[in-house]
Each structure stands twice: as structure tokens, then as C-alpha cells.
Amino acid sequence: MKLVSAIIKPFKLDEVRDALTGVGVSGLTVSEVKGFGRQKGQTEIYRGAEYLVSFLPKVKIEIVVDDSQVERAVEAIQKAAHTGKIGDGKIFVTAVEQAVRIRTGESGANAL
Amino acid sequence: MPKTMAIDTGDTAWLLVATALVLMMNIPGLSLFYAGMVRKKNVLATAVQAFAVAALVTVLWFAVGYSLAFTDGGAVMEVIGGLSRAFGAGLHGATHALAKTVPENVFLMYQATFAIITPAIIAGAFAERMKFSAMMWFMGIWLLVIYVPVTHWVWGGGFLGRAGVLDFAGGLVVHLNAGLAGLVCALVLGKRHGYGHEYMAPHNLVLTLIGTSLLWVGWFGFNAGSALASGELAGFAMLNTHVSAATAALTWMAIEWASRGKPSVLGVLSGAVAGLGTVTPAAGYVEPWAAMAIGLAAGAVCYWMSVVVKTRLGYDDTLDVFGVHGVGGILGSLLVGVFATSAINDVRNGQPVGLVDGRGEQILIQLYGVAVIGLYTAVGTWIILKIVDFMVGLRVTRDEETEGLDTVLHGERVQ
Q1: Which CATH architecture fits B9-406?
Q2: Distance between CA atoms of A89 and B364, rounded to whole angstroms?
Q3: What is the mean pLDDT of chain B?
Q4: Under an 8 A CB cutoff, do A49 and B202 touch?
């Protein structure tokens, strides 16, 4: 099993969700996050007071998938979240040791 | 005070409505205008100031404030009134010399709303760092020691009104007065911790937009109501108010757009308030074209003071009480000397009034009013702050300021 975490532009969330459903991913977790990468922050000005806002709002999605699904899932996210402009985000893949479905107690790939 | 004048139902109806409009400017207008501009941790503490001041001032005004401002002071009439209307005494069948066709109880109420909003405006200058206890003490003392005598000098039969100083609806009494007091508060209390390098952006400008809109509409009661009668003069005052507000909003927007690249929401709102404050002393004395010129000047000068000069001088007038109200009040009061005309308001019995009538002297008279009130307010506010600081301390501690006034002072939060 692998955990796929992706930081994407907030307005791309629906497209990414549809793409993942399309490749058989059956659930995902979404968080609103802030951060910075190569995309620099924005300047806000209030009556002459300038603030450089260096942390921009992003959406983080997390899915856990079977090893055989990883490549398709990553590709689906990469295509759906892509605009070609700086700030599109990143995808991280990490190994997952165990998964348990709370309702039934099933574990491993059966819990996904 | 004459007790037998005929009451005019039209005049009375308009003053009753205008009274409600001016109270609406303060709660919730000013309350929301300010609350939207502070950080989320200080929303409630900021919003409640105008509300608590409304209650405090009402009681003080009813007790002695109105009487000291607007009744006969006998031997000391030049500087202060008497106590004949203390606690609403003698109102049965009474009218006031300034509004002979309206029951005096309505006049007292109408003036109460002005007494409420003037100190409440000051609160924007020390927002996000003053103790609630200190704020209440300051407001109560300031009302009685500064607002009441100044009102008497200009409107209540005191020496400034007698000298010919013109202030239609409160450029001197309200806006210069509150604006300068705000500047002194900002200087005495000092900057907020982190000012200039921490993120202190307004948390919700929609609240500020709603507040500004309520102020704009309420200002019709403030300025057109100051005709103290229903009729053509009230109509001109309303038209002038509206034209000036709109012109100043566009002016501020245009300057900001050209110099910073974007027309900000806070900018257009600030411009409107600047135009409203600046036209206040002139609303019932000038032609509508002059109101447009006043709005143009208001947008440009208040922008320059709030955005350019304040940043350079480095004082922390949190919500620009001085830059918008103080500067607007001074500017508008001086422009009365330029644009006041007997064609709109024949205050000199057929004689020319302002520079447009060919009489430059009114500008000097206006300058005299600005100087006297400015000096009195600045020095008086400084002394009151020192007294309150000695009594209860003015500022919350640094840790409390970091945590936010909502939880520290009131034990509540917005969410």
C-alpha cells in the first residue's frame, strides 16, 4: 500500500476528484493548507500598509491505494491538477505499513 | 426658551427620522465599519466600543450634557451653558431657539446622537490595544470636558458661534474634534506591538462595506437633519452630502488605481467616508457644484494624509481617525470660508458670506475656529489620557495584546 499526498491548487479539486474516481480510487481526504514553493507570495495593500503574504492557500489531498494502483493514481492527479503555471503543486508517494477499517476490523488492502 | 412657538409636524417628523438615522450611523454603522478593519482576535472588542459609548453618552447627555451645551449659561454663556434642562427638566411644551418648530425633547434626542458618535469615532485610533475600562473612563470624561463645551462654543450660543464661525453639521464639533483627539490618543498610547512588520490586515472588509453604507445613508440624517427643519435647505444639504461622498469615493479610487495599480475595496470606502466628513460643515452653506469640488479635495487630501503622510511619520492611528475625520473636518471647515454663499443659506442677512460671494474674511474666521478647537481638543485630550492612565492604565499588557482583546477583555470570541 502507498500513501499518495498531493498539494494542488484549490480550484483544481473537483477535476482531481473526478480523475481519481475514474481510475478506481474509492475515497480521499481533503485539507485546506497554506504553504509556499517556487510561487512567490502576493502583496496586499490596505491604505498604504503593504503586506507580503508568503503562504498561499492550497488544497492537500491524501489517498491510500494498493501498490498496483499507484502509478495510475499519480498520473491522474498530475494530469488533472496541471495548468502549466508556477504553483501547480507537488505529489508525494510514501509507503504505508498497515490500514484498518474501523467498522469491520478488516486490515491491509481489504480495508481500502 | 420660547414656549409658545407653533410646532410644525413636517419639521418634527423629519427630525424624528433624522435622529434614528444618526443613531444608525453609530450602531451598527460605525461599529461594523471599524470591526471589519481589525484583526479577528479584536473584532468584538472593537465592535462593542461604539455600542457601549452609545449607552454611556446617552446617560451623561440626558443628565447634564445637553443642558450644559445648549441652554443659557448666564454670566458664563460665552463658554458653557446652564443646568436648566438637567435630567430632562422643563421639556413640557418647550422648543429650542435653534429649532423653533420642533419640540425640544426631539432636539435633545437629535443632539444626543451627535454626542454619541463623536467620541465613538475616536475609538478607531486606539483600536486593538486600549483597555475597556480606560476606554469607558476616557469617553465619559472626554464627552463632558471636550465635546460639551466645544458644542456650546459653536452651536449653543458660545463665543465661536458669536464670532461668526460656521459649522453646518459638525466639521469642527464632530470631525476635527474627534480626529485630533484620535491623533493624540494614537501618539500617547503608542503603536501596536508588531506595527509595521507583522500582518495586521483587516479581517473582513465586507463588514466595513456594510458599515460604510450605513454611515452614508445615516449621514443624510446627520447633514440634512442639521437644517433642523424640513424643506429646501435640508434638500440641498442632502444633495451636497451625496455628491461629495460619491466624488470623493471616485477620487480616492482613481488615485489609488493610478499609483498602486489596483482600486482597493478599502480605498473606495475610505474615500466615501472622507467625502462625507469633509462636506459636513459645508452641506447647508454651499452650492452642489461646490460640494463636488469639496469631494474632490477630500478624496485627494485624505488619501495623501492616510496613505502617504501617516506611513512616513510612523504613528499608529489604527483606523485612520485623524487622516480621514480630522483632516476632512479641517479641510471642509476651511472650504466653508471659500464656498459658503447667501444664495443657499442667508446667514448674514443678505450680506455676502464666503469667498464665492466676494468675502474672503470668512476663511480667516473659519481658521480661527479650527485653531481654537484644535488646540483645546489636543491639549485637553492629552490631559484626560494622562489622568485615565494614572487611574486605571491605558493599555493592555503585551501578552494580552498578542492574545487578542476579545478573550482578554470580554471573555468571548467570534468563533
Answers
A1: Orthogonal Bundle (1.10)
A2: 65
A3: 96
A4: no
Confidence of residue B5 (pLDDT cuts 50, 70, 90): low
Q: Do A46 and B264 touch (CB under 8 A)?
A: yes
Local structure of residue B26 (DSSP, 8 states): I
| pLDDT tens-place string over residues B67-116 | 999 999 999 999 999 999 999 999 999 999 999 999 999 999 999 999 99
Beta strands in B275-385 (DSSP E): none
Using CA atoms, how far apart are residues B234 and B19, in angstroms rounded to an integer?
14
Report the alpha-carbon distance of residue A72 to residue A83 in Å, rounded: 19
Nearest Cα residue in chain B from A48: B307
Distance from C-alpha of B210 to C-alpha of B5, rounded to nearest angstrom: 41
DSSP string, A53-87: E-PEEEEEEEEEE-GGGHHHHHHHHHHHT--SSTT
8 Å CB contact of B266 and A47: yes
Supply B73's cell numbers.
449659561
Q: What is the pLDDT of residues A3-46, one digit of tens each?
A: 999 999 999 999 999 999 999 998 999 999 998 888 777 888 88
* Rounded-to-5 percentages of helix, strand, coil across chain A: 30, 40, 35
The residue type at A67: D
Listed residue (B247, B241, B336) closest to B296, CA to CA: B247
Measured distance CA(B392)–CA(B406) in Å, rounded? 19
CATH class, domain A2-111, is alpha beta
Interface confidence, given as ipTM, is 0.78
**Burial group, residue A17, by CB count within 10 angstroms (0-12, 13-18, 19+):** middle
Partners of residue B200 in chain A, C-beta under 8 Å: 49, 51
**Tens digit of pLDDT for each residue in B194-250?**
998 888 999 999 999 999 999 999 999 999 999 999 999 999 999 999 999 999 999
The answer to whether B320 contacts A47, with C-beta atoms less than 8 Å apart, is yes
**Counting beta carbons within 10 angstroms of the beta carbon of residue B3, is it exposed (0 to 12), middle (13 to 18) or buried (19 or more)?**
exposed
Interface probe with A: pick from B37, B259, B307, most Cβ of A within 10 Å: B307
Q: What angle do CA B309, B404, B274 make, to 5 degrees?
A: 30
- Give pLDDT tens digits for B11-40: 999 999 999 999 999 999 999 999 999 999
